[in-house]
Records
---
Amino acid sequence: MTIFEATQGILNVKQIVKTFGHFKAVDHVSFSIEKGACYGLLGPNGAGKTTTIEMVEGLLSQDSGDILYKQEKRGRRFYEEVGIQFQNTELPHYLTVRETLITFRNLYQRKMDLDELISLCKLEDILHQDNRKISGGQKQRLLLAMAIANDPELLFLDEPTTGLDPQARRHLWDIVFQLKSKNKSIVLTTHYMDEAQILCDTIAIMDHGMFIAEGSPHDLLEEHLSGASLILPSAVKDQANLEGFPWPWFIVRENNIEIQTQDVSSCLAELMSRHIDLTGLIVRPRNLEDLYIKLTGQALRN
Amino acid sequence: MFIRIWALFVARNKEFLRDRSSLGWSILFPFLVIAGFSLMFTENSRGMYTVGILGKTMSNDPGIEDQLQRFQKTRFLVLVPFDDFDTAIDKLKHHGLDMILSPESGEYWISESSPSSYIVEKMLLSNPGEPGKGFAKRVIKGREVPYVEWLFPGILGMNMMFAGLFGVGFVVVRYRKNGMLKRLSATPIRAHEYLVSQVLSRVFTMLLTTAVVYGGCSFLYHFTCRGSYLLLLLIFFLGAISMVAMGLLVAARLSSEELASGLLNMIAWPMMFLSGVWFSLEGSKPWVKTLAQAFPLTHLIEGARQIMNDGAGFWDIRIHLLVLLIMSLVFLALGSLFFEWKKH
């Protein structure tokens, strides 16, 4: 018996490959998801996340490799027991929120109680509104409700909070926490590192069709990163003085300069010796976003 | 399976019935066409008139022969030879011919309710030859089908064709384009279940709007259906399924509304002109008549006309029913086979 066969995860993916023409979009990817766990899949655009997820969801067929749900090949039972939320899905026109939920519930044999579904996704106030007249946050909550209308055991969430304001994101996170508390397994793709850090038990970072790191957020940070980041809001004008600086530095969002270092004291001394403006200096521990950039070499949402 | 089909059937019906602009147009359009034609009884924009020549094409009477020669030189006339009087007169009664001329006996017949017959008669009489020696007018014996009653099944059929082809084809392409079909594919529903729900929903709404149009026109223009309403419902039902299935076949893989529009128009417009909606194909080239038999609209309109105008029974229109049934099954089978949830 192989290690793979011995694994009792709800979903086991082994060595899947997908090629489009001469382009290998997914290259021997394997992972396993435990019951009740949230698994985050991160990576830059074009890394192969969507192709991987669509193969697991059954929307694309893999060229080779195996995908097992509850230790079996995926059949009709898989579609009855999983829920899927795509990003940017249009809603049926001219239907109300309630009618949409009823329609989707009726596509399954197993159904979540309608009142529970409405309450869980906080849809009480918009039940009788036309789908076309709800806000972005409300639409994401409805899409999530459609995805869990069958009370799924395994839920796929594809960038569920992209484009939402902070409050709407927090609302959605609350729902995901409640689903986790009900022992639902979740596969989440996201571009928000804070979201992955908060929601996921395990994350995998993908690039060029392969997993380049996998583990819990804490373990990955321990393994790959230590030290701190120095953020310098006022130093862009002093870029010339950073020529030959001993630690790596980048221009990041809002024209800040970020320096990554293991030795904060020496770094600060070097900055002062070069007469760099330290006004507004922030020193923070390294996070998942730093790890992501380190591993993929790309800024988020490139 | 039935619950899933029912769920999508109900959802699609609600979408259609709440889309007031589409619903309004699908009812208003045939009314406008019928109203327009009822006003156009005194004029006809059609450029071609069909005249049946009974028996010999020449007359021994010099006066009649002279009038015939002059008449034949008139533009926009198609002359079709007939040997059998009854066949020719039946065509005239059903607006397959605009006039019958018998050079041998020096007689002519026209349909009193047809605007085309009126114009062709004027053409004939404008070439009188010697006074008192031209063709003599004869009255059609038996019942003649009023022109509007002949036209009406064609208008209903045409409306069903547009509703079926575009109503379903466009919606499926739009849903594929905006990801709605992809979302449905992630549920337990199968392709054929989805297609059946769409066909049933569209056929239901098409029959509903057709019933409203039929009732309204019947009230306004005093139409009568001489055959069975149940049989009429059956042929409309099969006709609607075949049109919707054809629309689904065209939309089976497309994700571009522009391309879908082009393809659907490419099918719809020849079908409209060659299926006898506006005028009979009598006098057309044989290949045109053969091609017309390949269109479901031809069988829908011919069957409906036989029921409404002549009181035909099930056995009389069995071929039309059978062809529509076969076309529906073939289009649905191919549509299911080629159907894709996702855009390429």
---
Amino acid sequence: MGKHHENLLNNLEELRKKAGLTQQELSEAAEVSRKSINAIENGVYVPSTVLALKIAKTLGCKVEDLFKLP
Amino acid sequence: MSYFRRFLIVSVCGVVQIFFASYVLLGLLNLNFFELPSDSFLLPGILIILGSSYLTISYYLGDKKLNNMLYDEYSALRYYKLGAIGYAINGFGVFLIFSMQDWSNWDLTSANRMIYQIAAFAWMVFGFLMLIFSWGDYQEYHAERSS
């Protein structure tokens, strides 16, 4: 299984690690399940706009920094 | 509500459903090793009513932050996928059960048996799906504890 979804490239893992957060810590801060974070990082799941904005807000970056079209 | 509590509620309901479904299916094959009192068949229904009431109340009145995590969109997608698999398997099962009947000697006893077969099969399938769903909650609980 690749890191990126076929329709979306993501830098979530990189930015999360840069912020010094574990998947569990990020999930608690963004109020989503750890599975969601894990699935997004592994390119299994494309988040909704609200979830993408929540994650970006928690990491203090823009959604465009997290996700890019291939 | 927490992942562990939801795991407990859903898995206990799932295991009880599988137990009673197995009992009914084995009975249809005349393979019951023991006799269950007929009143005990209320147990899975009571558990489902109590469990789902507790889950519903905690969803509306529980801690909002926790509920956002417990019922986030990825969990909803998982639940939807498992439900869809359940309906597909049940559809296939009902087709098989219909195909197995002896329609040339059809009577009320056969109809009664077929209703039991369909009910027990659906019970069994959804019991297993509940166990699979609750396993995801257990993994979340385990990850929470180890972090």
